[in-house]
Design brief:
By secondary structure, this protein is of the alpha/beta class. It contains 17 helices and 37 strands. The strands form eleven sheets. The protein has a six-stranded mixed sheet with strand order 8-7-6-3-17-18, with helices on one face. Strands 10-11-13-14-16-15 form a six-stranded mixed sheet. Strands 28-23-32-26-33 form a five-stranded mixed sheet, with helices on both faces. Helix 13 packs across helix 17. The chain is globular.
């Protein structure tokens, strides 16, 4: 074994068996040989004096979150704006175009795709991960490589191992190492593919190196399952090392990075979560498929020196990177590249979503039985709700789904605290919206009718499989927790009309509402923290009149707070939680806690007697604009106020509301 291969095996924890499986795997697509790690024939025919050109088209998906069909399992109805089944039709067309000009194609996925909807997760919940839906769909489309995202680790290493074993192409990640060198990881640090990119018989194959990186924060978010097993390196450093190796030691003509990371407005930490910009500046990369933040790139606001594509999320787009190549001295070199996007659906001026392609009948038929089984499983009754639960107004008004989640969390944890250090201190409960529109689009909201609740409704208000965690915080830490949550709002100037209330660069799932206390949010004050959790203005404070039981909270008070494993493990960069004291608790999944609560297995929690925690501070009648889903129209009476009125639709299909503060 070459020295670097041995070092790489030690560095990334790739066993001999895994390496041999990758080296010997082969597949043929459109008549183009694509052996993995195939040795290059260095004694091929010398090129003629005439210049020879070639073309490679990289087709990319990212952040599918297991949206395989154009179907919403939470509302149990079709959704033409999502689904790999529609992307598949764009893939077929793109391949035909490349074939027509004697070019080649690669189809890659950039992570957060294996899990995320009931059709992918239900088999794990019932203990049958060996019949996974996403690998079946990937095999049908003929993917050439799959990179990993942070959500691939949501169910632990064993579930990932069993799922990845069913994928028929290389699964790669370049910035994760096994702490035990004998551990056989279910992915490789990189892959090398070969393609014939020219009709000229004198042209050698193009040798393509693929690497993959994801946020090191994945370790924190999944610490309860990954601690002691894996170590995560910084993305930019890993990409620099592997790209150099691919070009110098593996003789790759091109290196393409599957980067499960996006753009950051602020990130003061040494370990970046969104490192797309510094990755694009690396000399060793020729193109990047980006993801994680659900943006659509390219766009007019972001320019890079190399082709970069980020094809949205949930199967909303197919990403394309077209690379023009030239043969010189027996080696291919990149002449130019261009990135573009193809949507599966577009919105008309009145907000209607119009599909641009049909669903692939092959995929619909291949997944038909699993699709029907999933619908039946998600229809299982779990209890009742007296109120309609929706997230259209989560960021401006009372959200009964957040309240239900908070009450269920507290009811599940309260009995477990009796023998802990938190037995005699107040218990609070923090919950945040899982579906809030934003970059996911105007249909991405929870909406559960009053009455009987089914399993799909619980998954609707809690789309991620988090577990419950509890910590002890001081009054000061509690205030800073709320200050970070309030960062979702823009800095509003009193008296100025037409300002957008929500900062589009802040995720709605970081808006924690903490039940058990009461407070105001003053959006006329600047943010205390930036999106990376760094202190941006030490004198700033948006949280006003923070009280518990009607008395002002002091810095030295203590509270126990139950929240999600995502938040307590570092999700959202809440620096206040870095100094909180964790409480040891048995495993309780958030969805299970909600099922138990609405099913009457636990008594109503004392938090139900309190007022809804927060409201906006009075800004003297200042009007701001808030975007929500168009289906929010039927829920406007829930606001019970004349300070909110609809003012039409935005260009991308959101309902515009004018809110008076």
């Amino acid at each position: 074994m070459p020295a670097f291969h041995a070092a790489t095996a030690a560095l990334f924890g790739v066993s001999n068996r895994t390496r041999l499986l990758l080296i010997n795997s082969q597949r043929t697509q459109n008549g183009i040989d694509s052996e993995i790690f195939k040795l290059r024939n260095m004694t091929g025919t010398e090129p003629s004096a005439e210049k020879i050109f070639g073309k490679l088209r990289v087709l990319a998906t990212t952040d599918l979150h297991a949206n395989l069909l154009s179907y919403d399992y939470y509302s149990d109805r079709p959704n033409p704006g999502v689904g790999l089944s529609r992307v598949s039709m764009l893939v077929d067309a793109a391949r035909r175009e490349a074939d027509a000009i004697d070019g080649a194609t690669l189809l890659v996925d950039n992570g957060d795709s294996l899990f995320g909807t009931p059709i992918a997760e239900q088999k794990i919940r019932v203990g049958e991960p060996s019949s996974a839906a996403v690998p079946k769909a990937f095999s049908l489309l003929g993917y050439d490589a799959v990179g990993l995202g942070n959500h691939e680790f949501d169910f632990g290493l064993e579930a990932l191992r069993l799922t990845a074993a069913q994928i028929t192409c290389p699964v790669i990640c370049s910035n994760i190492r096994a702490l035990n060198p004998d551990m056989d990881l279910p992915f490789a640090p990189y892959a090398v593919l070969e393609r014939s990119v020219s009709a000229s018989p004198a042209a050698p194959s193009l040798r393509i190196g693929l690497l993959s990186v994801l946020p090191p924060h994945t370790m924190k978010w999944g610490a309860y399952q990954l601690t002691g097993a894996l170590e995560f390196d910084q993305m930019v450093d890993s990409a620099a090392v592997i790209s150099q190796h691919l070009k110098e030691n593996e003789n790759c003509d091109l290196v393409i990075c599957l980067a499960h990371t996006g753009l950051a407005d602020h990130d003061n930490s040494q370990i970046l979560e969104n490192a797309l910009s510094p990755l694009a500046d690396l000399d060793g990369l020729d193109a990047i498929v980006a993801g994680h933040t659900h943006l659509t790139l390219p766009d007019s606001d972001h320019q890079f020196d190399i082709p970069v594509v980020m094809p949205g999320a949930y199967g909303s787009h197919l990403g394309l990177i077209d690379l023009d190549l030239e043969l010189s001295r027996g080696r291919w070199s990149l002449v130019s590249g261009h990135a573009s996007l193809q949507p599966i659906a577009v919105r008309t001026d009145d907000g209607e979503l119009v599909p641009q392609v049909d669903e692939d009948k092959r995929m619909v038929e291949a997944l038909a039985s699993l699709h029907q089984e999933t619908r039946e499983q998600m229809a299982q009754p779990v209890g009742r709700t007296e109120h309609r639960l929706h997230s259209f107004f989560s960021l401006i008004h009372e959200d009964k789904a957040l309240a239900l989640t908070a009450y269920a969390q507290a009811a599940a944890i309260r009995p477990l605290l009796r023998e802990t250090a938190a037995a005699n201190i107040p218990l609070l409960s923090a919950s945040a919206p899982g579906k809030f529109g934003g970059r996911a689009g105007p249909t991405r909201y929870s909406d559960v009718p009053a009455g009987a609740m089914h399993l799909r409704h619980v998954a609707d208000i809690q789309p991620f499989p988090n577990e419950l965690r509890a910590v002890i915080v001081t009054g000061r830490e509690l205030r800073d927790w709320l200050e970070m949550s309030a960062g979702v709002f823009n800095h509003i100037t009193p008296g100025q009309a037409g300002q957008m209330l929500i900062d589009p660069d802040r995720a709605g799932h970081n808006f924690d509402v903490i039940f058990g206390v009461e407070y105001e949010i003053d959006v006329s004050a600047p943010n205390r923290f930036d999106s990376g959790g760094g202190l941006s203005d030490a004198a700033a404070s948006r949280i006003r009149n923070l009280t518990w039981n009607g008395v002002a909270v002091t810095d030295s008070q203590y509270f126990a707070v139950v929240s999600s494993s995502f938040r307590i493990n570092g999700g959202g960069n809440f620096s206040a939680l870095e100094t909180a004291t964790p409480l040891p608790l048995p495993t309780v999944r958030t969805r299970d806690a909600i099922c138990d609560y609405v099913g009457g297995k636990r008594p109503p929690d004392p938090l139900t007697h309190g007022a809804y925690p927060w409201r906006f501070s009075d800004l003297g009648g200042t009007t701001v604009e808030f975007l929500t889903g168009p289906d929010a129209r039927k829920h406007l009476p829930d606001l019970q106020t004349d300070t909110v009125r609809p003012i039409g639709l935005s260009h991308d299909g959101f309902l515009r509301l004018q809110l008076t503060l």
